[in-house]
Amino acid sequence: MIDWKYYEVMYGERYMDTPESNPEGYKNSALTNYADKLDGRLLIIQGYQDATVVPQHSLSFLEASIKAGKLVDYFMYPNHEHNVRGKDRLHLYRMIDQYFTDHL
User: Fold this and answer.
1) Which domain holds residue 93?
2) Which of 61, 77, 65, 82 is nearest to 8 (CA)?
């Protein structure tokens, strides 16, 4: 979850109230505002069909990272929702394991 303004309203407003009544909270918690401070490697993995954490989250962070000149590794599972399930979960675990092996 990158930015509460893109999060599912039922959950977001439960914790953050509305953007109109809590603009500072939304601004301060939006990770896009901190992309320029990224130091090191970052892997973002997301399911394209995720209706809870919609792709706009990762896309907005990627855009902020590009503007800040930061490199981010990104992988999207085109046929998955909020959780990668089935045979693709093995692929997900292999990817995470390899990323840690390569970069930690």
Assistant:
1) 4-103
2) 82
